[in-house]
From TrEMBL, chain A:
Residues in ABC transporter domain copies: 5-234
Organism, scientific name: Marinobacter fuscus
UniProt feature coiled coil, ranges: none
InterPro entries: AAA+_ATPase, ABC_transporter-like_ATP-bd, ABC_transporter-like_CS, ABC_transporter_ATP-binding, P-loop_NTPase
Protein name per Swiss-Prot or TrEMBL: Multidrug ABC transporter ATP-binding protein
Lineage: Bacteria, Pseudomonadati, Pseudomonadota, Gammaproteobacteria, Pseudomonadales
GO molecular function: ATP binding; ATP hydrolysis activity
Keyword check for Transport: yes
TrEMBL record, chain B:
A GO-annotated cellular component: ATP-binding cassette (ABC) transporter complex
Family the entry assigns: Belongs to the ABC-2 integral membrane protein family.
GO-annotated molecular function: ABC-type transporter activity
Protein name listed in UniProt: Transport permease protein
UniProt entry keywords in alphabetical sequence: Cell membrane, Membrane, Transmembrane, Transmembrane helix, Transport
NCBIfam families in the cross-refs: PRK15066.1
Membrane-topology annotation of the record: Multi-pass membrane protein
Cellular compartment(s): Cell inner membrane; Membrane
Domain of life assignment: Bacteria
Amino acid sequence: MQPDISVKHLNKIYEGGFQALKDVNLEIYPGEIFALLGPNGAGKTTLISIICGIVNPGDGEVKAAGYDIRKQYRKARGSIGLVPQELNTDSFETVWDAVSFTRGLFGKPPKPSHIEKVLKDLSLWDKRNNRIMSLSGGMKRRVMIAKALSHEPRILFLDEPTAGVDVELRRDMWEMVRKLRENGTTIILTTHYIEEAEEMADRIGVIRQGQIILVEEKDRLMSKLGKKELRLQLQQKLDQVPGELTLEPIELSNDGWELVYTFDSQQQQAGVARLLRTLGDLEIEYRDLQTRESSLEDIFVGLVNEQSPQERSTE
Amino acid sequence: MNLYGVKAIYQFEMARMRRTLMQSVLSPVISTCLYFVVFGSAIGSRMGDIDSISYGAYIIPGLVMLSLLMQSISNASFGIYMPKFSGTIYEVLSAPVSYIEIVLGYVGAATTKAVILGLIILATARLFVDYSILHPFWMFSFLVLTAVTFSLFGFIIGIWADGFEKLQIVPMMIVTPLVFLGGTFYSIDMLPEIWQTISLFNPVVYLISGFRWAFYGVSDVHVGISVGMTLVFLTACLTIVWWIFKTGYRLRS
Ligand SMILES: Nc1ncnc2c1ncn2[C@@H]1O[C@H](COP(=O)(O)OP(=O)(O)O)[C@@H](O)[C@H]1O
Ligand SMILES: [Mg+2]
């Protein structure tokens, strides 16, 4: 399948010499929801801005919907809708005019029925004749989303779409993303809310200091890097981990009232069964047990805190 | 060609102008009326004819030019400065529009409005002075050519400016003096020789001279030179605009 977004060996050095992207390679496929995770200043906005035509690319090749963003910029840009990170809106225009303006700008003939649908989906219909400056911040963000969808793009970029928005809008936005996916729209989002990526993304890319350090399907990422924890509340207090279990990654906690067993998700079946059997053999009884899966957030924090290879080698 | 894109920008700009109708039409009309009252009637009645044209009629082309230049520059510079200032420029930069289309939209709208305003001022002048237009076609052509050229110039200023002061400094500090010293209120022949020579470096002299020729058939410099100089300035502006978009100067980092 031809990717909807294809980035090859992309570099970006800003005026002043700061290198914001280093040899970025990335492919995103039609209809998928891709989450780009990374700490502040990692280069997420830079990457998106280059693909969308707002920032000049450095060397490397970038294609959107199969079109080169430089040589075939009309077709490339025409297939993209962008909701940028910053809340930049017109002021004096009405919601309807502003959203219709974007559709025209993207070279599409007027289609009031589509604008109406977008505004209704985003709960902006009642406000269509209001000037944008009279709207609240959340409503303004909805207007920006409506603008991005006004020209029926097949690829949608959402740059930190839910940073600082209210719960209601976040819920609406998730709902909207799901609906768009059903129509086959490719969605790329950056976010700080890892739960968002966890909830919605099919694949996840992690970017740090201008480098993509990992791209993986979410489920596989979870199982590959995810750790599980089994906690057993004991009937009787233990003074130490029984000798038969010392080879296992097991610890005693809660003053000896609890056994904590940590295991990789892959080996879960075998490990847990063996542990429980051994406990049975030792006649150690437990009142209760829970397992906990590490969240994407734990994984992410682990990843970005990891030293980069250069840093490691200089030590 | 993304005609819908050009139309979207053009209409957006025209809507902005309609919203500010009062300040953008009324204020130049009022100040032009004041010029006519003071220079045309009060002082003009004591002035002799210049090139056998009554003083009140003589200053009309220059006054129309003054408003035309100011309006072209301020409309076009504001039009592109505002989205840069508010951040909404991202939309234009991410849209499938070529730079020619962007310029057509912004400069086209600024030109339209400046020409309309020029015609309104011309009509207003009729209330004060009886004048005739010898070459209406050339008069209109000059009006449009000048409006296009200075709208382009304004567009460049709007991209260059990174603050409101800079946006206003060029019309205030450069264009106003050039227009006043460009033969609006006098014929260049009336100046001492040295100032006549210096005046020839003022591009506005050629605009006003050519424009006045279209009205009355008299001019300080030959009308061909006027047209030529305007075209030179137009080409210079076009070249700068081309360079701006090629390099992304102050638009794309
Ligand atoms: N126009 C610019 N000029 C110079 N440096 C920039 C510019 N824009 C961003 N940067 C720098 O590039 C890095 C990446 O920024 P950005 O892409 O916005 O990161 P993110 O979106 O991941 O937070 C940051 O260190 C930022 O300071
Ligand atoms: Mg960002």
